[in-house]
Design goal:
This protein is mostly helical. It contains 11 helices and 5 strands; from the N terminus they run E-H-E-H-H-H-H-H-E-H-E-H-H-E-H-H. The strands form 2 sheets. The chain has a 3-stranded parallel sheet with strand order 1-4-5. Strands 2-3 form a two-stranded parallel ribbon. Helix 3 crosses helix 6 and helix 5 runs antiparallel to helix 6. The longest helix is centred in the first third of the chain and has 19 residues. The chain starts with a strand and ends with a helix. The relative contact order is 0.18. The mean pLDDT is 87.
């Protein structure tokens, strides 16, 4: 599942519900999740034996700017990746996308015995405008996929945006432009991906009904 959720439309709320399910794998917000496309594409250029050294090199280089590690438990993550990387000599970027999600889940104590029975939810938070186009990249990595779009009343959403900007002292032209840029225009269709649209207000008012229908899809 690719999360295509507009700013201030329930990102954290929606993720919090999904994280309760043991069969859904979700990375925390941060550098790894946001830049997963670029990281996987870079690692796919290496032989299996060189993938982890390059991964840790990328990791260590970003610490100069972000100060916070992407990986909470390096030992568990390392062992999980080593196990999967031992299966063959090379891996595609899409295979690495799945493997990194599995290793990340195991690092957080969520064991994945059969990845074919699990669901990955990916929402690169800082690339809201590009996130749906990643469906083109992931087409070959999944039997079927879906793009989850959560929408919210545009006036309430704009108010939430302004309140956050005011509290942070960041009201400027960019902020106002982002508010006026919604609602979105016509959405694209992607081969192999079904679009599921949910209203933030409906989820809040009727969570059981809305998520039952969502899980059925």
């Amino acid at each position: 599942m690719i999360g295509s959720i507009n700013p201030y439309s329930g990102h954290i709320f929606f993720r919090g519900i999904l994280e309760c399910r043991p069969d859904i794998l979700i990375m925390d917000y941060g550098y790894l999740s946001d830049n997963l496309f670029f990281i996987c594409t870079r690692l796919a250029m290496e032989k299996a034996s060189d993938i982890l050294p390059v991964f840790w090199k990328l990791h260590n280089e970003t610490l100069r700017f972000h100060k916070k590690s992407w990986i909470l438990n390096r030992e568990v993550f390392q062992k999980s990746m080593e196990r999967m990387l031992s299966e063959k000599e090379t891996f595609t970027s899409r295979e690495l996308f799945v493997m990194l999600h599995v290793a990340y889940a195991e690092m957080k104590g969520k064991r994945t015995e059969d990845i074919s029975k699990a669901v990955i939810f990916w929402e690169p938070h800082i690339f809201c405008d590009l996130v749906e186009d990643y469906a083109v990249w992931l087409q070959e990595a999944c039997v079927s996929g879906c793009i989850v779009t959560v929408v919210r009343n545009v006036f309430i959403r704009g108010g939430a945006f302004l309140r956050a900007a005011e509290e942070g002292g960041t009201i400027n032209i960019h902020c106002l432009s982002s508010i006026l840029n919604l609602p979105n225009g016509e959405k694209k269709e992607y081969s192999g991906f079904e679009r599921i649209i949910m209203r933030f207000e409906d989820i809040k008012c009727n969570p059981k009904k809305e998520f039952w229908a969502f899980c059925e899809k």
